[in-house]
Amino acid sequence: MMNRKTLFASLFSLVLAVPAAAQERAFRLGLITPPVHVWNQEAQALSDTLAETSGGRFSVVTFPSGQLGSEATMLQQLQTGALDMAWLTTAEVTTRVPDMAALHAPFLVDNIEDAAKVLRSDPAREILDALPRATGTVGLCYAMTGMRQLMTRRPVQSAADLRGMRFRITPAPPIRSFFEMFGAAPAPMPLTQVYDALANGQIDAIDMDYESIINFRYYEHAPHMMETNHHMFGMVALVSGRVWAGLSPEDQAILRDAVQQHCDRTIDRFVEEEDDKLARLRQAPGIVITEDVGPEFFGDIVERWDAEWSTRTPYVARLRDLVASF
Ligand code: BEZ
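A: This is the predicted complex of the input protein with benzoic acid.
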């Protein structure tokens, strides 16, 4: 029989054991991209990395394909602490942090290697400092989904052919500006709605990256692809500010290092695989590719875009200077 003293001691050790168990945590991570996307693969791999570096305490449960709502909704959920983490497009964050618009400056870089350098640069990292105040999130690192191309239903010979086309864009002010400047009719909508909008004729054209074009086979309804590389498409790995504040400095370091590892891996994979993706698209049924469409195709659009956005953020000039130094 247990006497009172041993019973008390056992209960006490049980109570002590509770906080250790309570530290076990499955972080909920939302993404707009489907399970096949590189972001989702790396988000899954993050779970394994975290399990290893946290001694089995941390893991990640992913919510792909906008299951939790649009990127705008996920950003709100991060702000309230209803969601722990999200890997969102830099485009989405431009709605709250105008400095991030500089990452979408048209023709900022002319190849994916330089896009990687920009995303790993000090000025780009500085932009993340504005996130806690503007969004209630902590931005741990950037990654990307490659460079963006134009895909249209009808063939395009000159920029004049793009005028009046209903172009699906990712909802973001700097992207809207670019499309308005060449006379298109931008139709902002989440990634999850794009295929159906093309299939039912609601839109004429899209702004998209190779990874998504392959994953969703957009060429089935918009077979004319112009290889413009007109802007890079960044991702930012976010943690809810509330969730972050509830972690010890040691656990913050574990999370930061693990996420950084998968941001880096994502960037490296896009750099390594971009040419192969274009090669695969050349084989896609029905696709017609116009290669090497440069900024000159769009006339003076880079100057006009810079003139407008330089009044909103100094980072347009800073990033252009940075790229000039590569
Ligand atoms: C898009 O909105 O076009 C998009 C979002 C995330 C990944 C790829 C594309």
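The pocket of benzoic acid is lined by residues 32-33, 89, 145, 170, 191, 208-209, 212 (CB under 6 Å). The radius of gyration is 22 Å.
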